[in-house]
Amino acid sequence: xxxxxxxxxxxxxxxxxxxxxxxxxxxxxxxxxxxxxxxxxxxxxxxxxxxxxxxxxxxxxxxxxxxxxxxxxxxxxxxxxxxxxxxxxxxxxxxxxxxxxxxxxxxxxxxxxxxxxxxxxxxxxxxxxxxxxxxxxxxxxxxxxxxxxxxxxxxxxxxxxxxxxxxxxxxxxxxxxxxxxxxxxxxxxxxxxxxxxxxxxxxxxxxxxxxxxxxxxxxxxxxxxxxxxxxxxxxxxxxxxxxxxxxxxxxxxxxxxxxxxxxxxxxxxxxxxxxxxxxxxxxxxxxxxxxxxxxxxxxxxxxxxxxxxxxxxxxxxxxxxxxxxxxxxxxxxxxxxxxxxxxxxxxxxxxxxxxxxxxxxxxxxxxxxxxxxxxxxxxxxxxxxxxxxxxxxxxxxxxxxxxxxxxxxxxxxxxxxxxxxxxxxxxxxxxxxxxxxxxxxxxxxxxxxxxxxxxxxxxxxxxxx
Amino acid sequence: xxxxxxxxxxxxxxxxxxxxxxxxxxxxxxxxxxxxxxxxxxxxxxxxxxxxxxxxxxxxxxxxxxxxxxxxxxxxxxxxxxxxxxxxxxxxxxxxxxxxxxxxxxxxxxxxxxxxxxxxxxxxxxxxxxxxxxxxxxxxxxxxxxxxxxxxxxxxxxxxxxxxxxxxxxxxxxxxxxxxxxxxxxxxxxxxxxxxxxxxxxxxxxxxxxxxxxxxxxxxxxxxxxxxxxxxxxxxxxxxxxxxxxxxxxxxxxxxxxxxxxxxxxxxxxxxxxxxxxxxxxxxxxxxxxxxxxxxxxxxxxxxxxxxxxxxxxxxxxxxxxxxxxxxxxxxxxxxxxxxxxxxxxxxxxxxxxxxxxxxxxxxxxxxxxxxxxxxxxxxxxxxxxxxxxxxxxxxxxxxxxxxxxxxxxxxxxxxxx
Lengths: 465, 418
Fold this sequence. Notes:
The complex is a heterodimer of chains A (465) and B (418). In chain A, 26% of the residues lie in helices and 19% in strands. Chain A contains twelve helices and 17 strands. In chain A, the strands form three sheets. In chain A, strands 1, 2, 3, 4, 5, 15, 16 and 17 form an eight-stranded mixed sheet that branches. The radius of gyration of chain A is 22 Å and the shape is globular. Helices cover 32% and strands 22% of the residues of chain B. Chain B contains twelve helices and 16 strands. Chain B has helices at residues 2-18, 120-127, 174-179, 184-203, 213-222, 235-248, 264-269, 295-301, 320-331, 336-341, 345-350, 397-417; strands spanning 22-29, 38-46, 49-55, 64-67, 72-75, 77-82, 130-135, 145-153, 161-171, 228-232, 252-256, 273-276, 306-308, 368-371, 382-387, 390-391. In chain B, strand 15 and strand 16 (390-391) form a beta hairpin. In chain B, helix 4 runs parallel beside helix 6. The N and C termini of chain B lie far apart (66 Å). Chains A and B meet through helix 3, helix 8 and helix 10 of A and helix 9 and helix 12 of B.
């Protein structure tokens, strides 16, 4: 399944690019910045056409349909509405229950934050490569352990798409990967087909304190930004040289640089940028850097002070991915408020909830519920059909999958959750979770859920003695 | 003239200490003396105490009336094992006071004098309906002991220390082992040796020199007056905790108990109470393999007294995280009223304050919260909080920030429609 050239061989990557481009004849060799040498081998689970009836449907795009129906055919949403033709579909009566698109979590460390944690992980965690503040050459997919129990926990909570981001210690933390949290042995078969990678960046306290303590660069905020600007300046040159080579104005491409590949892909807008950033001032500075070098920041993650700069965020078309109520554990989080999401939303900004934690990732709808409750108390109107967009269609768009997932509409992937009740209630649970039309989890048949390899034969993980 | 002045002074001081008489009317009162709420309850409070609670009663003349409009009213919440007042910004070590680095006094390390009553975490927790908490020390250089915890009554602007030295805290785990003395067997041995040494010292004729701090700390543990609280998770360690309780005839409380569901009957028989994390269902460590969301339900069903404590980041939301956690436990089989008890009356029992707090009954402290919905729903909020009979203003660092920046929302929205 792995490419025989080896993932780390830059020459091999270039060779693939040249081969694929020369195959079309007249085209000159194209840059390899965003070529995926190990594309998805995902295969949908066995599935049957299914019609859900009598449900309260939140379509993920702002619509609520009471007593609604959702028809899944061949892994896609065929129709949403009333009185749909069932033909050969299995009919599920969801009376009293709610139906939403599968939850999309744009910020997890599943598969890299090892469980159980051991002393090994304290010194050499797979969450991020911390030997250099610029780890733009690292791809988190090379670290993901598909056996991590967080994946099954996410799926059983209604999550059908996750982005694994590298951690925020480096300024350029590396490329993300978008996965389906289904049982798998290798990461390639979990990869969301065709989903672009992202770039994780960070600003603020993390990098400067981690590297500063080691008496390395950066040890200040200005030092961080200097490194970021210098790297993008180099990436501009690298990209220009590649373009010159592709045009035929120079004979040789520039020497392969895996870090600059990633940044050049950002400048080409082939890789969306996700920036870990808390303070309003830091976010404003990063938007300035993006403007200077001509790239777009898809989302600020955590963004606890976003409510201080709603107009700026709206103008720059940058989303925020936030918790409902985490605050205070770092100095740069002291001004976090629970109305953050609702205030940015009310200003017309783009808002989504994220988890950053395998525990929170099991309750993203509750995160949204809490953030919405704080918003309602501050006077904003936040009906459930709108709030659900924070964990469905909006994060789907941030992953550039907004035309494929996150909304229940004809042609979209049939990623669907039937909730036992209002998904914003703590008492509700995901009853059935469909991924591409396949019943990937059924709470009524827990024995069918695949147990992790790690759990097999372990007395502690069994039934009550 | 003098007399008038004195009267004014007297009334002022009464007002600052206990405020006026208040009647909360039309409450759905979860008194927790019953498994069912009292509908249309009138709760009268005066001089910091609950005076009466009865269905449909008329408010006494002169009392300020708070109309709950049918919404739920509970006693204030209690965090059974927090670090409130000991951690402000966890990444800024100068604001972290939970652990001693000196080898002495070990078990006798008393956290009382470190409590910061102006902590923003306490301010927020109070507006979230938390009115009491036990704060406890982290690891000390004398493993497995941390030191002694303190019971806080989260009154505004006053002395929050309700009772110091409410328990001796220790920790036994694989992680502790790596950082300190090695094998968990060594940790248990040190714990037993400390108890035996204290017992022998206390039995010996008194000497003029004061007893060592750890012996002083363990005296009330050995006398059954305060519990020994052990943070531990693995089944073998839970069984060891049960044995310790039997062998020394002491009260043991376990914090964590990830695998508690496997020894629920043994814990119940030994009257070992458990303070657990209701959100834990992932094996963060080898000690926590098999941790599950129905741990609370299974332990309670077996008769174990359970309380909730969510640590780490959730410690910043000491009030709201308790409600969410208890709600989650209810979603996974814990009876609803037991969910409420696990964050109110059960911690009161565990920490020996149930004679003053934990139910809505005449004579108890007037720590009461009016909720805008089901208190175990995370999206519900406290609308009125009384602590010691005084209504707490719902003003926090966060609410002032919100109010300062709300106008920017309108401005940004308007900019978009131009």
